[in-house]
């Protein structure tokens, strides 16, 4: 009877991991649609190509080396290489490890399901970079960075946090990031910021006297669809991070995480909508969408401990903050076409810092040190990698190519051929 209970728990937790991973994978579609809606029509095919290609690259690089760097301590067995070389079987070893470690009451699931759940998080971090550098970055330069980001940069900072190989006393100082406000979202924003600083702004974005010129996206329905897809996928992102479903306490924890995640998104949307109305006199759809996403990013660091009302207020605060962040970055002439640095970076940092308000297992100094380690490593290493790529192959398309649009110059295929003018 006891073995049957263990087997049922194993099956349920494994299935929950896989379903949650599938929801997070669907966020790739959300990023693709959101970014495609917020860029100009002449750059749509290129941004879609980036999003599909970066997901594929992330899956391969994390399989080949990223997972081992993040969780193997550098001296373990590389699951991918040993399996294709006829060595230890990944699935058999992972199943045995889960059984040995889990039947005492911890999570019990297939190691293969854990890998699948982890790899879609890597792709999420890289997707953040895509929108921030949109409309003026060379496609192949971006993909070259994706190889390093998903294979080395993200796994290294992940190993210092979720991987348990702590640095600078992060855990002694009680650092906590439940599902990745800092580890995933702020990390992606840090990599994006490094690229944007070296890349420069889009032509015509800023005037000589410091004026900021709006460059509207081509498809607001698509951007809205992308936001709703991301909102839905976030239930897997945060809910799956409970890591367990097969008992009453865990099932309740999952339900609360879902509830708080949804509440924070709603709060973020309303907060951004209200502050945009106050500042601009209009209901700004792009700020509304980014407000919802900012609420989701902020609650990700600790969706398991607040009350639903607190989660709503946290999300609302993030929605207000992200509007001011987007305005401030524009004043600093940091051109981010989709607001990714503000949504994922600023709101991600905010999310880390509010965790101690509801979680006794975290301290403000611990959160600050953890955020500093994550940002410092990802921003610094990304800046170096971007600089090397710039030196070797260049990272920016020419002015003529930018004017014509990256669709035609980088991909040779236009998303809306009846409506775009490529100068042909």
Which helices and strands occur, and which strands form pairs?
Blueprint: H1 2-38, H2 44-71, H3 79-84, H4 90-102, H5 111-132, H6 139-159, H7 181-199, H8 220-239, H9 248-280, H10 285-299, H11 308-331, H12 340-354, H13 364-393, H14 399-404, H15 406-411
Helix pairs in contact: 1-2, 1-5, 1-8, 2-5, 2-6, 5-6, 5-7, 6-7, 6-13, 7-12, 7-13, 8-9, 8-10, 9-10, 9-11, 10-11, 10-12, 11-12, 12-13
Strand content: under 5%
Q: How does the helix and strand content classify structurally?
A: mainly alpha
For the largest beta-sheet, the strand count, sense and barrel status come to: none
| Count of individual helical segments | 15
User: Helix coverage percent of residues?
Assistant: 55-70%
User: Which segments are poorly predicted (pLDDT under 50) over 5 or more consecutive residues?
Assistant: 83-88
Description of the structure:
This protein is mainly alpha-helical. The chain contains 15 helices and no strands. Helix 2 crosses helix 5, helix 5 packs across helix 6 and helix 5 (111-132) runs parallel beside helix 7 (181-199). The radius of gyration is 21 Å and the shape is globular. The relative contact order is 0.16.
From the structure above, extract its key features:
about 425 residues; mainly alpha; globular
